[in-house]
Amino acid sequence: MTAVAATNETKKQTREPTPRRRTWEGFRRNPLGVGSVAVLVLMALVALCAPLIAPFPEGYGTDISLPPSAAHWFGTDDVGQDVFAQVIWGTRVSITVGAAASALAILIGLLLGVVAAYFRRLDTPLGVLIDLSLSLPVLPLMILVAALAGPSVTTLVMVIALFSWPEVARVVRSQALAIVPLPYVSAARMLGASAGRIIRSHLLPGVMPVVGVSVVLTVSRAVLAEAGLSFLGLGDPGSWSWGGILHKAQLSGSLASAWWTTLFPSLAILLLVVAATLVSVAYNDARNHRGER
């Protein structure tokens, strides 16, 4: 009987899904989440394959300010450049800036959040730094720093990351504060494990679920910030981005006379932000196992 009971217990444990498996199953059952992931993957593929989709928009053309047609899907601008090509190449720069700025912001926020939670002597000064950074007027400071540093893709990445890490740090710190008092962390400390080992083995795996949500949201916010700064003329003038397209349309006066020059890059920004938001919501619901019957 003991062997039978042990066998039944083993089968039960085998059938019991792991938290990661439950999260994946919950996410997979959410059509909005899966569809949004497909949209983000498609945008990433467009950014990677931009040279194969459309030629780089440069120079002048003879078809000036034409509305969308079979020859020019998104129409042309005031100098005859194809708006479809601008949006395709703008996808590359916008997503690159968003991903790079998000990665840097998450790295800074993750480091400071974990350090503040584990080293209690640093919690107060780092907590004050995080709260102070969150209270700053972000957009005016972004404009000021970007204007002083000069327009370039590198400047955009650094400026956006500089003002995006506090939100990540606050979320990571709150999650890590709940992990530090747990018994297995205390046991590791009593057994002589170093602070670096405890952080790598226990704190980082524990905060990764909230970091996963922050990744997608931070990318979408970074893309929005890049679009705003580029629209104000603080982007790289030698490259195309969605905000740069809007800026050039505004300079040429096409905002009122040629609606297609602003509609399609605006739709691209909207699509990415909505898709990223839906992915984060679906992932968070699946991680918390909401909606299960």
TrEMBL record:
GO terms for cellular component: plasma membrane. This is ABC transporter permease. It comes from Spongiactinospora gelatinilytica. GO terms for biological process: transmembrane transport. PROSITE patterns: ABC_TM1. Residues 1-23 are annotated as: Disordered. Residues 9-23 have a biased composition (Basic and acidic residues). The chain crosses the membrane at residues 32-54, 95-119, 139-165, 171-191, 203-224, 258-283. It is found in: Cell membrane. The lineage of its organism: Bacteria, Bacillati, Actinomycetota, Actinomycetes, Streptosporangiales.
